[in-house]
Write a structure and sequence with these properties.
With about 325 residues, the chain is an all-alpha fold. The protein has 15 helices and no strands. The relative contact order is 0.16.
Length: about 325
């Protein structure tokens, strides 16, 4: 039941058979390799390994906060309830600091919230050990990817309709009924669904090399994400988006969307909708709306292209963030 539930969550997030932006193709026909890459990364970084599960759930929830992804904040606050850390869950949902929070947990939350601030001192001196680093850093990167996909495709809350108003209660109930079983999961590392492939581990993930399983997961994610981009985005679009993300320093662009219109202006009219979708997904995913998606679909109507384009853009941003994170010096 626990493994099935976790796999189900990753299927929904990775393949995106979703409500807000309708996808019609059968699950698995859309982006089976992408799903497998995301599943492996989430499993190896968040679920298995030496780092404490509560610590990683705290990082997942705090990263989701800075990415303005309330759906993921709710889910991982529920996991914290399930792990017995209701005080942190309540703090994340309310936005009010709890002065009684243990110092280690407080420092991990501060570190996670600084992952969009490449010059922050806490990034160069992170509050975890060398042994824990691959899983904790990998969890942060994984959720910088997932938050963007969730913001594009899912509603703001995992609770349906009017029930979304009861976030705290929902987190407590779900955490008590299901979350405590999920966070107690003890699984074997290295159970990948994909072969390693020819894509080398990008240098941005150098901090993962001390953990072959985390490095293997990130290598596979890199391979399927880059393949998705090549399949569904023109080379000129990928070049423009990559250049913009490479120069990004974590600060949200805007306000408004004038920046994205200026950025895509050099491209042809046919290329602009894809570049606009990819740039917004990478740098301001909460601004992606149905018009942006529908404009993209006019030139690339298939669901697989939509998922591939947003997956590549989310990965490109997550890789950029990974490049300014550090493992402890000793």
């Amino acid at each position: 039941l626990v493994i099935g539930f976790f796999a189900g969550v990753i299927v929904v997030l990775g393949v995106l058979a979703v409500e807000r932006i309708r996808i019609d193709d059968p699950i698995g026909a859309i982006a089976a390799h992408g799903m497998a890459g995301v599943w492996g990364t989430g499993r190896e970084c968040l679920v298995v390994g030496q780092a404490g599960r509560v610590d990683r759930e705290a990082v997942a929830a705090a990263v989701s906060q800075i990415n303005a992804c309330p759906f993921c904040v709710d889910i991982h606050s529920a996991m914290l309830h399930g792990a017995g850390n209701g005080a942190l869950a309540e703090e994340l949902l309310s936005g009010k600091e709890n002065p009684e929070m243990p110092a280690r947990t407080r420092n991990l939350v501060h570190w996670a919230r600084a992952t969009l601030s490449p010059g922050a001192e806490i990034l160069r001196n992170p509050p975890f050990s060398i042994a824990e680093a691959p899983q904790i850093l990998g969890t942060a990167v994984c959720f910088h990817y997932l938050n963007r996909m969730v913001n594009v495709f899912l509603e703001k809350s995992p609770l349906p309709g009017p029930a979304a108003s009861f976030r705290k209660t929902g987190a407590r109930v779900f955490g008590s009924l299901v979350g405590r079983r999920i966070v107690a999961l003890d699984a074997e590392p290295g159970r990948f669904l994909l072969a390693s492939g020819a894509t080398p581990l990008p240098v941005e993930f150098r901090w993962a090399t001390n953990s072959p399983h985390v490095a293997g997961a990130l290598q596979r994610l890199a391979g399927v994400a880059e393949e998705a981009g090549r399949e569904s985005l023109d080379a000129g679009v990928r070049e423009l988006v990559s250049d913009r993300v490479t120069r990004w320093n974590g600060v949200p662009p805007g306000p408004g969307r004038a920046w994205v219109e200026e950025a895509v202006a050099p491209l042809s009219n046919e290329q602009q909708p894809a570049a606009r979708l990819a740039l917004l997904t990478a740098l301001a995913s909460y601004q992606v709306d149905e018009k942006v998606v529908n404009d993209f679909r006019k030139h690339r109507p298939s669901d697989s292209d939509l998922v591939n384009a947003t997956a590549w853009a989310s990965y490109t941003a997550a890789k950029r963030i990974a490049g300014w994170l550090f493992a402890p010096a000793r």
